[in-house]
Each structure stands twice: as structure tokens, then as C-alpha cells.
Predict the structure.
Amino acid sequence: MKHRPIKASILTQNLSHNLFKVKKMTNLTPTWAVVKANAYGHGLKPALKAFQDSEGIALLDMEHATLARELGWIGRVLLLEGIFTEDDLDDVVNLSCEIVIHHEQQVTWLIQWLGRQSLQNVNQFLTNCPIWLKLNSGMNRLGFKSAQYGVSYEILKQMGCTVHHLTHFANADDLQVLPSVKDQWEIFSKATQYAEGLKSAANSAAIIGHFFTHADMTRPGIMLYGASPSGKYEDIAHLGLKAGMNLRSEIIALQELQAGDTVGYGSQYQAKKNTKIAVIACGYADGYPRSAPNDTPVWIGKTGHILEGQIAPLVGRVSMDMMMVDVSNVSYAQIGSPVELWGELNPIDNVAFPAKTVGYELMCGLANRVKQEIL
């Protein structure tokens, strides 16, 4: 039985390659490989295999931290949003996680929890579960402002905790928007100048463009998966990163339009001349953006040889299960011809950008009905 041809391939070697590139451009600075959102849609299991050379993984959910340990991950695990209730600290200890603390309630929960634990549990937490205190240096999302940051640091140190320091940049991918990376870095540096502990600030965009922020540990995310933090492929084209995911399908029908004919819902595309249209088994129910406009690039390969091919333009409105491409200039296009929606041959950013979104969203939004294979 032949199934619907759309499939996502997760390329673990490419993910490992991207981590190597991060290490190289940061002079081997230790990394937290960010694997939140199910490793940006790539799956936690292949990500753990790919990122064995990172010093740790960073994620959000206790469930995924548990899964990582069950899958054999023995490295460091950082919970980027910390704990959501006092009881979460039981799992933190059991899983030997490091936690971000970013508001006063989390400090209170920790004090209360430690107060009702055995000496053994207290020592286990203090030994195995360092804290990353988060400074709000201008993102205004999570973290303590500078004045409260120092107070919380002293409280945690007096409790015997190992405390490290973390902040997050709002505009590392855009030099024209404030607050700037330089401004945020100065606030972070001033707030932590007399404090013990490691520092972590650089996300993907800062790793690429702001070398002074690399500090003691970087936190690469989107670049590990081969996409651009700015949403523009040209910003990473020179870095040698590789796509972590290929989304591919096939042509399932061909139509011949006459000049004046329209195609698709809303008839938003009208042929100006005789046009050959390929119908592809992929739509917004698979995770392809419905907002993708005419001329969004699609790679059309030769049957049996997808690496040999060319880009052709999307035409008409993307529907739930199908999309249409103008293959008038693709002489070899036929039913069964392989197609890459995004991946190694057609960068995901070149699909996301014209659709007014980012590669992050397309990766994370891949539908469950799309079969995945791990390569």
C-alpha cells in the first residue's frame, strides 16, 4: 500500500554539524542546546542523539526532562521557565535538573520546599541542582529587574545554592530596534559584576552577530536546526549551517490552463498565458502556511533524482491538503515527480519569509499526520 507521499525527514547528521559550527564560531564555548518545543518540531529523541557534544540541553517541560532521562541523556538539563509549583522541586531533584528562577514566588517556593525536606534531600538539591537567576535586562518578559536581582541572589546564596546568571536579548537579530544588545549586555554585566557563578546570554542571533556576549555558556536554538534567527536566509547563508528537516512530497496531478483561467479557492491566481500547473500533496493541514503568496519557491526534482531539479513558483491559495505550482518551465515535471517544500534544497526561511512568518513557526507547526523518518 502506498501512503500519501508527504514526509518529513529529520537529518541528525546535519543537526550535529550545526552544533559543530556553533562550537567553532564561539571558540568552543560550552553550549546549552535548546530543545524546547519538541526540539523545534524535530523530535527530542533525534535531537539528543545529535547534540551529544553539547554540555547540556535546555527545555521547558518537566515531561520532556523526564523523557530525556528515560532516553538515556546523562548530561545537564536546564528548565528555562523554572518551576511552576513548589511540588515541581521533587522532580527537579529526582531528574538532577538545573532551574531558571525568574520571579519572587519561585524563590518563596524553594525556601518552603527546602524547609520541609530531609537533610539528604537538601544536600542533593544543593549539590546537583544549580540555579540560573534570570535578569530582565530589557526583554520585559521574564526575570528580575536589577535592584531585586541582587536581593534574590543574596537570598539564594545564603541558602547554600549554586547560583549562575542568565538574561535574554530582545533584538539580537535587528540592530535598528531598541533595546540594543549592547545596552542589555551592559545592564547584565553591571548587575552581575561582583557575583560568583557562570554567565549565559547569547541566543542564536547573538552567537552569530555579537561575539562579546558569548560569555561562559551560549544557548543556540534556531541555528542548530539550520534556520535564521532573523527569518532571512541571506543572514546565515555564509555560515555553512544545514537544514535539520526535509519536508518533501510529490506531484499528484497536472492541469493545463489557458490564458484567463484561474486555479484554486478564491480564484486568486489567473493565468496570463497558457500555463502548466502541478498539484502537490501538501496543504495547511500538513503545516504549510496558508498565507504563502504567489511565487513562494518550491523545489521540483526529477523522478528518482530529487537533487536534480529547480525552483518553481507557488500559485493560487494553499488549501487544506493541496497546493499548486507553475511548472511551465519545468520540462520534466510529471505525476510522481518529487518535491521539496523546505529543507536542504529549498531553505525554510525562503518559504517562511514571503508568508510573513518565521522558520521557527513552520518547524514547530508540522502536523502530526505528516509521517516522520529519522536519518
